[in-house]
Design goal:
The protein is about 40% helix and about 20% strand. The protein contains 16 helices and 16 strands. Strand 13 and strand 14 form a beta hairpin. Helix 8 packs across helix 10 and helix 15 crosses helix 16. The relative contact order is 0.10.
Length: about 500
C-alpha cells in the first residue's frame, strides 16, 4: 500500500494533515541579482564571484533588470497582485558561506502578493481519476542566494564556494492547504511547467535551480493545527511526495504512541526514504530585519508609456504573457476532444505538444488513432533512446505519413510498429520506402485472407475442436497464428470474420 493511500485511510479515521510549501526558484539569468558575475552551474569553484558577492568593503549592489522582469512575469502567471512599489531588506544570519552576514531579500514589502495556482492532481497508482486543486500564493519575493559549504572535499576542513553567493532567487510562499505528498508533488510539477514556458527558471532540481521546503502538521478533525515540522531542500518531484507522506505518517505514529511533535527542521534521506532531524526551532532566531540602505524602493510602471523612467512595465509584461500549461491543456481538449489525462501528458513532456499538433494540424487525421500511436509507440521509442520529442530524429511529417497508411488500412498496427522501429534506425527513409522495401502492405483481399485462415485451421485441429465445443477463447491463438503467418500484414478485422465463418462451416 502506498504512503498516500495509507494517509487517506488514516484521515478517514481520525487525522487531518496540513501541508504548505515554500519554494526557492533560481531566476534564469546570466548575471546575479546585484552584480555582473556569472551564474554558470558547471563553473569551477569561486570563479563566478564579483567583489560585491564577496562582500568587500565599499562595494554596492546594482539591481539586475532581468531578475525583476522574471519576477513580475512569474507573479502575473500566478495571478498575483504585483505591487508598483516594493522594498528590499537585510536579513541577518551568520553562516560561513554568507560573506556579508546578511541576505538581501523582500520580507516586509514583497514584489507580489495574493496569488493562486490551479493544477491537476493525478497519479494513476494512487488516484482513480484526476482532480483539480487550487492553492493560494501568499507572496513572491526577490532575494539573493548564499554560497555553498563543502564538507566532504578536504578531511577535517570545510571549504567555501561562493559561486552561488548572490545568485538571483524568487521565493514563493504558498498557503498550507495541501493534504498529502501527491498534491504537493503535483503543485511542484505545475510550477515547473509554468517556469519553463515563461523562461524564468530552468526548474532543474538536480542543479539546485528549484528547491522545495515543506511545512507539515497533523491534527484531529475540529481541532487546531498541530505543531509543524519543516522538511528542507527537497530536490526532486518524487522526493517531495515521499518526504511529505513519510512525515505525515511519522507524526501520526508519534502522536498515537503518546509522544509530542516538536517544532524542528528535518531533511529527507532519499536512500532511506525517511525524514531525519537537522535542528530544532525551540530557540527563536532574530534575523534583525532592516531596510537595505543601498537600494532605493523598486518602482514599477503600470502603463504603456514608453518614456517611463521605471525599471519595468507591468502592463507590457502582462500583454506579452505566453499561454500557460492549464490554458494549453484546455485548448487541446477543446480542439481535439482528447481526455484530460492525455492532455496532461502532452503538455508535460518536453517538445510533445508541438510535435503532436504538427502531426494533427498537417491534415485531418483520426485523432484517436494518432493520439494513441504518439503517446504509446513514438514515446516508447524516444524513451528507449533517452530522447525528448524535441530531439526526435523522426519528424512529425513522417509520423503523419505513417498514420495515414495505418488509417487507410494500407498497413496494420503491428506493421506500423515495425515501420516505426526502422525509421528510428534509418532516419533517411520514409515510411513508404520502408513498407515497399519489406513488402509490408496490408493484406485486405478476402481470397488471400481465406487461404491463410484455411491453412491455420488445418494446422490446429485441437483448437478448432475447442471452438466448436463453445470455447470462444480458442479463437485467440488461431487469430494470433493468422497474424504470424501473414507477417503482421493481415487485416485482422476481416480475418476474424473469415475464420469464424470457416469454423462454423466445418463439421
Amino acid at each position: 500500500m502506498s504512503d498516500s493511500e495509507t494517509i487517506r485511510r488514516q484521515a478517514k479515521r481520525s487525522w487531518e494533515s496540513v501541508v504548505g510549501l515554500e519554494i526557492h526558484a533560481q531566476i534564469n539569468s546570466e548575471a546575479k541579482m546585484f552584480s555582473g558575475a556569472g551564474t554558470q552551474f558547471t563553473a569551477a569553484p569561486n570563479t563566478q564571484v564579483s567583489l560585491f558577492d564577496a562582500a568587500l568593503p565599499g562595494t554596492l549592489p546594482v539591481l539586475n533588470r532581468r531578475c525583476v522582469e522574471a519576477g513580475v512575469l512569474t507573479a502575473l502567471a500566478l495571478n498575483c497582485t504585483v505591487h508598483k512599489v516594493s522594498m528590499f531588506d537585510r536579513k541577518h544570519y551568520f553562516y560561513a558561506d554568507l560573506p556579508a552576514g546578511y541576505q538581501i531579500t523582500q520580507q516586509r514589502m514583497p514584489l507580489a502578493t495574493n496569488g493562486f495556482l490551479s493544477f491537476v492532481v493525478f497519479n494513476p497508482v494512487v488516484h482513480k481519476r484526476p482532480y483539480k486543486k487550487t492553492v493560494g500564493l501568499l507572496q513572491l519575493q526577490l532575494e539573493q542566494d548564499s554560497g555553498k559549504s563543502l564538507h566532504d572535499v578536504d578531511e577535517g576542513r570545510t571549504l567555501i564556494d561562493l559561486n552561488r553567493a548572490g545568485v538571483p532567487l524568487m521565493e514563493l510562499v504558498f498557503e498550507a492547504t495541501l493534504k498529502d505528498g501527491e498534491e504537493a508533488a503535483a503543485l511542484v510539477k505545475e510550477l515547473q511547467l509554468i517556469f519553463k514556458r515563461l523562461g524564468t527558471c530552468t526548474s532543474k532540481m538536480e542543479e539546485g535551480a528549484l528547491r522545495v521546503d515543506a511545512n507539515v502538521s497533523v491534527n484531529q478533525p475540529g481541532e487546531p493545527w498541530g505543531t509543524r515540522t519543516e522538511v528542507k531542500n527537497i530536490n526532486s518531484v518524487r522526493c517531495v511526495a515521499k518526504a511529505v507522506d513519510f512525515e505525515i505518517k511519522r507524526q501520526i505514529g508519534e502522536l498515537e504512541a503518546g509522544f509530542k511533535i516538536i517544532n524542528e527542521t528535518r531533511m529527507f534521506d532519499a536512500q532511506a526514504k525517511q525524514t531525519v532531524p537537522m535542528r530544532d526551532k525551540e530557540v527563536f532566531q532574530d534575523y534583525r530585519y532592516m531596510p537595505e540602505p543601498n537600494l532605493p524602493p523598486l518602482r514599477l510602471s503600470d502603463s504603456k508609456d514608453g518614456k517611463s523612467t521605471h525599471l519595468v512595465s507591468i502592463t507590457d509584461l502582462q500583454d506579452n504573457l505566453c499561454e500557460l500549461p492549464g490554458q494549453a491543456r484546455q485548448r487541446l481538449i477543446e480542439s481535439y476532444g482528447i481526455s484530460l489525462q492525455q492532455a496532461m501528458v502532452i503538455v508535460s513532456e518536453t517538445g510533445l505538444e508541438e510535435f503532436y499538433c504538427a502531426v494533427l494540424n498537417d491534415r485531418k487525421r483520426n485523432v484517436k488513432i494518432a493520439t494513441n500511436f504518439i503517446l504509446s509507440e513514438v514515446m516508447s521509442q524516444l524513451n528507449d533512446k533517452g530522447l525528448t520529442f524535441g530531439e526526435s530524429p523522426v519528424s512529425p511529417q513522417k509520423i503523419g505519413d505513417l498514420l495515414d497508411m495505418l488509417e487507410s488500412k494500407f498497413i496494420s498496427l503491428a506493421t506500423a510498429q515495425d515501420v516505426l522501429k526502422h525509421l528510428f534506425e534509418d532516419h533517411a527513409k520514409s515510411p513508404q520506402e520502408v513498407v515497399r522495401e519489406y513488402g509490408w502492405s496490408q493484406i485486405c483481399d478476402e481470397k488471400m485472407l481465406e487461404a491463410i485462415c484455411e491453412k491455420v485451421i488445418e494446422q490446429y485441429p485441437q483448437k478448432v475442436k475447442q471452438f466448436k465445443k463453445g470455447k470462444e477463447r480458442a479463437l485467440n491463438p488461431l487469430l494470433a497464428e493468422v497474424r504470424v503467418s501473414s507477417l503482421n500484414r493481415a487485416d485482422m478485422a476481416k480475418a476474424k470474420k473469415i475464420i469464424i465463418k470457416l469454423l462454423k462451416e466445418r463439421n
